[in-house]
Amino acid sequence: MAESTKEIVRPTDLVGRALLGMSSVLAVLGGLLCFFAAAMITVSVTGRYLFASPVPGDWDLIGITCGTAVFAFLPYCQLTRGNVVVDFFTVNMAPRGKAVLDGIGALLYLLIAAMFTWRLYYGGWELYESSEVLAAFNFYRWWMVPFDFACMIVLLCVIIYRLARDIRDARTGRESL
Questions:
Q1: Are 149 and 143 in contact (CB under 8 A)?
Q2: What pLDDT, in 10s, does the model give residues 109-144?
Q3: Are residues 43 and 52 in contact, defined by beta-carbon separation less than 8 angstroms?
Q4: Whole-structure pTM value
Q5: Where exactly are the structural domains of the chain?
Q6: Helices 58-79 and 14-51, interaxial angle, to 10°?
Q7: How confident is the model over 64-122, as pLDDT tens digits?
Q8: Which residue, 6, 127, 151, is CA-closest to 69?
Q9: Which stretches of 13-94 are DSSP H helices?
Q10: What are phi and psi of 140, to 5 degrees?
Q11: In whole angstroms, how far apart are CA 140 and each of 11, 80, 120?
């Protein structure tokens, strides 16, 4: 796998800077959620080994926090082009060709993310109406859905922004971010 030597270029326009700020905050929150999950695993395993008393509901909480962390990382990864890219056949391609391929990828990602956002809304609403709670304690499963939904809205905005940049780059033949 070829490592990219490009530095992350900060957007200079107002929309790009705002999206980078929101995406960065979400990514930090996702990192804190991962830290919380790792700490909970450590406490639970230690408690299970030493005292035969793990954290109640640890599996459910780990799943919820890690899933929510993934939602939080998505906008930053898309904005900084940190998502997985298989570029072995585009390494020597002209910037215009890369921009066209990036635009096609962004369009497909936009469609998929829009579908996920749509289904997350209705799935979250169904969890809210059913009042489903975790078995170990009163933690409603829908409590994290609004945050996940907000992350998906930011992701959709980032994808649209990147798509617009890719279209501009394909027209001008230059490479951005």
A1: no
A2: 999 999 999 999 999 999 999 998 887 788 888 999
A3: no
A4: 0.87
A5: 14-172
A6: 160
A7: 999 999 999 999 999 998 876 767 777 788 888 888 888 898 999 999 999 999 999 99
A8: 151
A9: 14-51, 58-79
A10: -70, 135
A11: 39, 34, 16
